[in-house]
Design brief:
Length: about 190
């Protein structure tokens, strides 16, 4: 729930506001507040627990595309990296591993039949992270499975959505909103 600084309720509301700016209705926003998944940049979450929760959500919402962090978590945040590990576990272990239990078989069917794809957002070095639109040229030249380049209008919408997270807009995140390439270009690869 984003409760690292005891602001979980505030951050939930900010998330809903941000999603509203992006055209995502509050009914499609799910906040998981689980005691074993604390918001803490130094805590790695349990892979199996997180995979189970994410997969239940994918099934309940009939989701066919998941976008998550890569192994670098974009910022090195342990919780972000845990999300990548959980999705990788889900796809690699459950999809290709031994299918002994009914729930594993259901997950296997979910990924195969429902066509659920997982894309991971590429973490880039500090220089590329803060060169904004200049990274478009670099990103176009490098290998990737998907490349999303936002229009000026979409970039402004993304900035408005980021500004909804007022409790998190410390000085360095203000710089992020101004200069981050992630508000202009995102390169992803299939998991």
């Amino acid at each position: 729930s984003g409760n690292y600084y005891n602001q979980g309720e505030v951050r939930k509301k900010e998330l809903e506001q941000s999603c509203c700016v992006l055209g995502i209705p509050a009914s499609d926003v799910t906040v998981i507040d689980h005691r074993d998944l604390p918001d803490d940049p130094a805590v790695e979450w349990d892979t199996q627990l997180l995979a189970t929760l994410v997969l239940k959500h994918i099934e309940a919402k009939n989701i066919n595309l998941v976008v998550t962090f890569d192994a670098g978590g974009v910022s090195g945040h342990a919780n972000h990296i845990s999300l990548y590990a959980a999705l990788r576990y889900s796809v690699c272990t459950l999809l290709w591993g031994t299918l002994q239990e009914c729930c594993c078989f259901e997950i296997f069917i979910l990924f195969l039949c429902a066509g659920c794809r997982v894309l991971v957002l590429e973490s880039v070095n500090l220089f590329r992270k803060y060169i904004s639109f200049l990274d478009v040229l670099i990103s176009c030249l490098l290998p990737r499975d998907e490349l999303f380049i936002l229009t000026e209008e979409e970039t402004e919408q993304a900035k408005r959505a980021m500004r909804c997270h007022r409790s998190q807009l410390l000085w360095f995140r203000q710089l992020y909103v101004l200069f981050s390439r992630y508000l202009v270009v995102n390169s992803l690869r299939l998991l």
